[in-house]
């Protein structure tokens, strides 16, 4: 199974014209482009990454596809997503995608971390609409990845009554990426 392809396949089921989506870890921009292709002319994709080269890579892909106008991109931590979203879009997000770890072909010492990702998950939970999809792809094989993966599993246990969860992993590979697909089935508490 190619986990990024599976994450996009599941996300597509939640995207309609006018949808609001988030790419919480833009990376090389492939998920950002995918989301922009599926939110329609009335939709909007918010994308963040802490590395400016990631945002520039995404902008190039979006410009080539004539889809940059469907996005709002920022160099910032995924823990600060709520600072980027317009108030009218908060609580209206159809899909939020996280592809954790490091930027492929980038500096592998710059990685997502447990504490920051936990903050981002807490914020994203509140940004999702009922029925919205939260997709998280974690990589336990890189430095800090096992700790981050364990944190996500614990976060899901803590929020299990709010999501319908699917989990995908190659059981033959102890360092296999893990993909969680979570559909929000209950609103958050005030």
Structure description:
The chain is of the alpha/beta class. It has a single domain, classed as Vaccinia Virus protein VP39 (Rossmann fold, 3-Layer(aba) Sandwich). It has six helices and seven strands. It has helices at residues 3-12, 30-38, 52-64, 81-84, 114-127, 145-158, and strands at residues 20-23, 44-49, 71-75, 93-99, 128-138, 163-169, 178-184. Strands 3-2-1-4-5-7-6 form a seven-stranded mixed beta sheet, with helices on both faces. The chain is globular and about 40 Å long. 41% of the residues are buried. The model has no long low-confidence stretch (mean pLDDT 90).
Count all strands and give the number: 7
Instruction: Name the overall outline.
Output: globular
Helix content: 25-40%
Gap between N and C termini: 38 Å
The CATH superfamily bears the name: Vaccinia Virus protein VP39
What is the number of domains? 1
CATH class: Alpha Beta
**Average pLDDT number:** 90
Cα-based radius of gyration, to the nearest Å:
15 Å
* Strand/helix succession: HEHEHEHEHEHEE
Low-confidence stretches: none
- Report the major sheet: 7 strands, mixed
The structural class is alpha/beta
Please give the count of helices.
6
CATH-derived topology: Rossmann fold
Q: Into which percentage range does the β-strand content fall?
A: 15-25%
Strand order across the largest sheet: 3-2-1-4-5-7-6
CATH architecture: 3-Layer(aba) Sandwich
